[in-house]
Amino acid sequence: MNKEGELSAARAAEFTLPDALRQPWDCCCGKTHRTNLQWFRVQPDVLQDLTDILRQADCRRVLLVADTHTYAVQGQAAADVLQACCPDLLLEQFIFPDPELVPDEQALKRLQDWRRAIPVQTGDYWLAVGSGTLNDLTRYVSSQENRPYLVLGTAPSMDGYASGVSPLIIRRMKQTFPAQSPQAVLADPRVLARAPRDLILAGIGDVLGKYNSLLDWQLSVLVNDEYDCPFIRGLVEKSRDEVARLAPKIIRGDEAAVSALMTALTEVGVAMDYSDSSRPASGAEHHLAHFWEMRELLSGNHGHYHGTEVGLALPLILSLWRQLAGWPEPLEKCSRPARSSQAWQRQRTRQLEEAYRQAAPSVLKFDQEVDWFNESKRQQRLARIRAVWPRIRQLAQTAPDPETLTSLYRQIGFPLTPADIGLTPDDVQAALNHASALRDRYTILRLLDDLNWSPAELL
Ligand SMILES: [Zn+2]
Ligand SMILES: [Zn+2]
Fold this sequence. Notes:
By secondary structure, the protein is α/β, with parallel strands linked by helices. The chain has helices at 3-14, 46-56, 68-85, 105-116, 132-144, 189-193, 197-208, 210-224, 230-251, 255-275, 284-298, 306-325, 342-356, 360-369, 375-397, 402-412, 425-434, 444-450; strands at residues 25-26, 32-33, 39-42, 61-67, 90-96, 124-129, 149-153, 165-170, 173-178, 184-187.
């Protein structure tokens, strides 16, 4: 890292969220970093802050979105405080009755239909009360009509609070849509600490996944000259290390530690906003999680929390890095047909059809679009991989030992293996070998594919 990069990484270590209030700033990576987020508060009197922020923002009407559960834990209290402190403020509420709300086209339509019945007016502010799903829906609908939105978080369960994109399930496929990041992320630490344990574990898993996403990002910087930012990397590292250090306290319900988790989750979201991409926060471990989630959706099962699956994928991917760390040269497997050949393409099609079942046609189409069949591009990457192998190996040697992760999991009661949440050996093998086809993103899985390995063979 050059001097500027070192300074930037040191600055990231000192970063605290109110910094996000600052104006856009020019970074040594060449980008001007900016985020919509202006207010971040995790404190017991946060509802009072909410009223102050709305007054300051000249809000005239709040469109509060919750489900019955989040309304009971925080929405009702927010509505009461708003009505008591701001009698002039209009309040409209939409409360999803679903015990397990899914961010799909039906949920989206219900929210949009409700909105259509209320005439849009100046000073409208959306307020999502909840975590992942409620935010994904509110973020999307509010950005469609270009109105600001705020978050009142109820569980430290995922890193999407400050994110600017909405993952939605359309035709049973999870897709990410551009939306907007919130102007405020607010939460009461007492509410966060009382969130269901599985949601808190999921939040921890989502942050620990950064042990791999950052490695994958650096891998692509080496192989593909992808955009890099030492500040963003430093920020994500700082948040991740804090959560790893505090995990046992977080899980015991220590309010300060749970607030630190919420801060880390929001900082990672700011890092994504700063890079205009989920690259800093999502690599192969997320692709495995998306793959499992997709299989669960296809079987009509809503499955497990995202961060739980990310956390379970992580030791698998770290084991692959450990293998690479031992290779003095890039070990190329020569037994597969050349990628340009019809035999390779037939084999790939058959494998993706088996792995993706009903979703295979759209994955195959995407595979063509990202040009994964292109042999000359693969040869170019291979030449680069050979040239920079000592650096790739060095990177691999920095991967944490999967055993260290597993012993942390044991300590905090995180599931230890995919089988613990009902995933089969085939789910694991198919995800390792084919989950990379879900996204146009270079990761260790794509590297192994370039070297002709099926990743599952290496474990
Ligand atoms: Zn930067
Ligand atoms: Zn995630």
